[in-house]
Amino acid sequence: MWGIVRQRAVDGGFSASSLRRTRSALVSARSYAAGSKEMTVRDALNSAIDEEMSADPKVFVMGEEVGQYQGAYKITKGLLEKYGPERVYDTPITEAGFTGIGVGAAYAGLKPVVEFMTFNFSMQAIDHIINSAAKSNYMSAGQINVPIVFRGPNGAAAGVGAQHSQCYAAWYASVPGLKVLAPYSAEDARGLLKAAIRDPDPVVFLENELLYGESFPISEEALDSSFCLPIGKAKIEREGKDVTIITFSKMVGFALKAAEKLAEEGISAEVINLRSIRPLDRATINASVRKTSRLVTVEEGFPQHGVCAEICASVVEESFSYLDAPVERIAGADVPMPYAANLERLALPQVEDIVRAAKRACFRSK
Amino acid sequence: MTCQVRQGLHALVVLLIHYPQTSLKTPLLSCFFFFITLHHFLLFFFFLYFFLADMAIWFARSRNIVSSLRQNLGLSAILIKRSYSSPRPVTNYPLSSRVFLGPFTSYRHESTAVETQPDLVQQSDHEDDAQELDFPGGKVGYTSEMKFIPESSSQRIPCYRVLNEHGRIISDTDFIPVSEKLAVRMYEQMATLQVMDHIFYEAQRQGRISFYLTSVGEEAINIASAAALSPEDVVLPQYREPGVLLWRGFTLEEFANQCFGNKADYGKGRQMPIHYGSNQHNYFTVSSPIATQLPQAAGVGYALKMEKKNACAVTFIGDGGTSEGDFHAGLNFAAVMEAPVVFICRNNGWAISTHISEQFRSDGIVVKGQAYGIRSIRVDGNDALAVYSAVRSAREMAVTEQRPVLIEAMTYRVGHHSTSDDSTKYREADEIQYWKMSRNPVNRYRKWVEDNGWWSEEDESKLRSSTRKQLLQAIQAAEKWEKQPLTELFNDVYDVKTKNLEEQELGLKELVEKQPQDYPTGFHI
What we know:
The structure holds two protein chains of two kinds.
Chain A: H1 17-22, E1 37-40, H2 41-55, E2 59-63, H3 79-83, E3 88-90, H4 95-107, E4 111-115, H5 126-134, H6 136-139, E5 149-153, H7 169-173, E6 179-181, H8 186-198, E7 203-207, E8 215-218, H9 220-223, E9 235-238, E10 243-247, H10 250-264, E11 269-273, E12 276-278, H11 282-292, E13 295-298, H12 307-319, E14 328-330, H13 341-347, H14 351-361
Parallel strand pairs in A: 2-3, 2-4, 4-5, 5-7, 6-7, 10-11, 10-13, 13-14
Antiparallel strand pairs in A: 1-8, 6-12, 9-11
Helix pairs in contact in A: 2-8, 4-5, 10-14, 11-12
Chain B: H1 2-21, H2 27-73, H3 75-81, E1 132-135, E2 138-141, H4 180-205, H5 219-228, E3 234-236, H6 242-247, H7 252-260, H8 293-306, E4 313-318, H9 325-337, E5 341-347, E6 350-351, E7 354-355, H10 366-371, E8 375-380, H11 384-401, E9 405-410, H12 429-437, H13 441-451, H14 457-480, H15 499-514
Parallel strand pairs in B: 3-4, 4-5, 5-9, 8-9
Antiparallel strand pairs in B: 1-2, 6-7
Helix pairs in contact in B: 1-2, 2-3, 4-5, 4-13, 4-14, 5-11, 7-14, 8-9
InterPro entries (chain B): Alpha-ketoacid_DH_E1_comp, DH_E1, THDP-binding
EC number (chain B): 1.2.4.4
Cofactor (chain B): thiamine diphosphate
């Protein structure tokens, strides 16, 4: 359950498109602008929480093992020593309980950051997330706002079985009143978490356990304590002109790898990192599809009623006449996640699946 | 071994018999007898040696058995116990892994707990109770008496009350006195709540509002608890506490506006009737899911504690709501966090059609407080003065000692659960009548107020008729008042409207303008 995969991300986090254009297969990942640092997603999240806690005394962290244990995944490492037990609160084991308490504290004006050990356990608290947090501002006609952040790992890890591997992006993103964010790189993690903590609405922040250990280059701007990314804006990770690949979280890495493979075959793929599942950046999605005329969407979660379904519907509704090929959806298998490594691999989208789908969209294969 | 013993003994016997009889009759015979006796001597000592060696081994083995038995069983205890007909009870120790006892096992399984105490072998049974054990959570004494804590104590927790059924203060009772002004105000508000419930209920029956929920029979809890709190105390209600909001200054017109969901409703027509909420009165909006307000109250209490405010969180729950998981989480958390929260449980006997005998098997709710380490009290919820004193004291404790407090207020739900319920279907009409007439909290308190000379029949009729008139006017006005504009459909989903909501709003506006025939007349944007 603690499988940490350290890999160097080849393409992640580059904001300067010029660097991308000049890069060739021979150039290693280290050839970025001098002075640029690397940061793991874990450190990015930790620094984001740390900075927001020091800037605003109302921000506090609560969850299982966040304090003395330094966090189940070490995201809250060092915070207990720095801010004390009142602001880094180790809770008893009751998701329903501590989510309710977090919501109550938010009602009273504090800004809790509630950690779920994984979002699978958030199902035990989902009534509080939706009925007590998401709907409160609306139901109370603006009298009760809930500036709370629910964060934790989401989706499949490595060999953790069905009850620890579900992706909740589609579930939470269907609820009005919630904002749902899914970072990919360290810059995403920092910027979006800071934005989430500052936001007066309840935010569900879906991280990924396997990305925690991954290092990404990070700009000086992103290291500044006032850095913040806008909620509701997607990022074009790689520009292209033949097919649009839209995805979020860990699958962005896979999509970028697939784009590399497609480039070898002469297909120029545009990769979009959604960053924000709700509100969905329909403008960027549709602009890209109108440019390339082909769409491939990828997600780790279950296929029916997924995030990809919403993206496809949006594109068909708004950019139908621009499409040159049927929209392609790649999702996890419609089964509870199996444990055995070979079965698990088959149950999740792989780079080859994305490549094949893109080729199908370009009529290069069946 | 026995044959060796026999031979040795035989040799000894021969020796003893023959030796005195040997004489020097003939040297040959004496030599013969000498060698025979020598042989027997040697045999005897030879066999004696082995006999002793065997005995030694046997003793050693049995000593091991005995010592191991003693270590694991308390051998003496076993031997004594065997003669007892009933097994001795032992207190509830965790049973560690059992030692195989051989022939004793099947008989002694009831008292196996005794085996797990290594100290037992060191001292006698009398000194057992003085020892203490170190476990996570602190030192705990132990006993060798196996005794289960009974599922309920022989006596139920008594109920604190101040006024008897005739409205007279019970002599020697401990209570916080109320001034005339406060006492009269409390009565007025209780009577107002009664009239309000009656009129709104009738309005629902006439189809003018869609839903209503009365607090009939629980007026004392509503008003007296509110009177005992300070305005800064944050209230998280369940749904049968509109009296708390009434006390804090919510007007009858404001109640009516919420029920009709009109433009003046502070809830902007977003909620069903009776889901009142008001920031300025520190009364959180009523939320339908049961018991969710309990852990939220712990969170509010924690926030008040962190901000060092002279206030506490006060939350209400019914008897049925205590079955929810949130009840456990809320109380446990409040205790662990040492949050200033007052939990008030209105035990009114019914959760829709579920009687409390089907809700829990404990002695009500008050006994559950100690399970969480929370100070608790049971109060006569139909006695306004008792409720006032208890809530006032609980509030002081919560704020000054920064701890949660639990109050169980015993009462009866005279009305139906709501306008969607007909309680005569599951309970006797006689029972309802009894509580409505003979155990009415408003009448009981009225007697006390009147006995003090603070209230009269004239005041009564004046109050009731003016309140009734005000309510009818409020309903008429609320009914006529226009509903919310279309913009309110999309506001407050988020703090700031997101782009997709703006687009939807624009789209809907355009549609209404384009197709006015599809929308009700007077429907405005």
